[in-house]
Amino acid sequence: MSNEVSINQLISKYEDLLINYKKNVAGKFAADDLFEYNEILFAAHSCAIEGNSFSVNDTKELKEHGLKLKLHNKSMLEAYEILDHFKAYEFVFTQLHLPLSEELLIQVHSILLENTIRYTKNYEPGEYTKTQMAAGDTIFPDHETSIKNLPQLMFQTQQAIEENKIHPLIVSAKFHKYFIYLHPFPDGNGRIARMFSNFILAKFNHPILIITNDQKELYIEVLKFSHKHNDMDIMATFFINTSIKRMENELQEIDFTNSASRSKGGTLGFVF
């Protein structure tokens, strides 16, 4: 019961922040600029969690210059991984009317791994794994059973979206944990899980959830702990806190920038 109260309190805090965030951060951007800002942040951190060495600034330059960018201590494989992430993001987040389905999942995986999976695995984009999956010290459940269960996860998540009785962040977190432990693809499971968790949030006009690279160890531990104890509140709490932290940080950044650009009398004060 205490966990339930705690999550309700966090949701209340999140909703209060969300009003302020939409007004003073998201609402200040042009729609296209906000889309690209989120696209770059999300791609940089989601790919970094999987070992990609591109920083946010590197990712921004890649977005601006594409393959014309001169790569310094970066591989072409890393560049393609991020470029494909851009394409998948742009497809998914301009198709918010689409329901969650196995067909959509395979389509997005085909875009997300289009130029990389053939070089790292002997698979085609959009193809399910044919063997047992493991990551680090985690061995995932039987892959054939997991693949059979995947359509049901997509259906039940879509049903929860349509019924709209559970907060979107909780639906997103539950989907994320379930999908990660199905682990149906030979590569890209983490990236596509984060993509679809945000697809769920975007359907409700909630901010993109950015799990930063410096949260990687905590993120993995939360997934393991949630699975070990069959406790979805652990995953939901992580998602809510991560979203709150992002909004708080960006609101503080806006406040600081505005304060720094003002002086007494309302004129700009430049100090040399």
Automatic annotation (TrEMBL):
* Gene3D superfamilies, A to Z: Fido-like domain
Q: Which positions are tagged coiled coil? A: none
Fido domain segment(s): 100-241
Q: Name the residues that span the membrane.
A: none
PROSITE patterns, A to Z: FIDO (PS51459)
Q: Which SUPFAM superfamilies match?
A: Fic-like (SSF140931)
PANTHER family noted in UniProt:
FIDO DOMAIN-CONTAINING PROTEIN, FIDO DOMAIN-CONTAINING PROTEIN DDB_G0283145
What name does UniProt use for this protein?
Fic family protein
Q: Which organism was this protein described from?
A: Niabella ginsengisoli
Q: Could you read off the lineage of the organism from its UniProt record?
A: Bacteria, Pseudomonadati, Bacteroidota, Chitinophagia, Chitinophagales
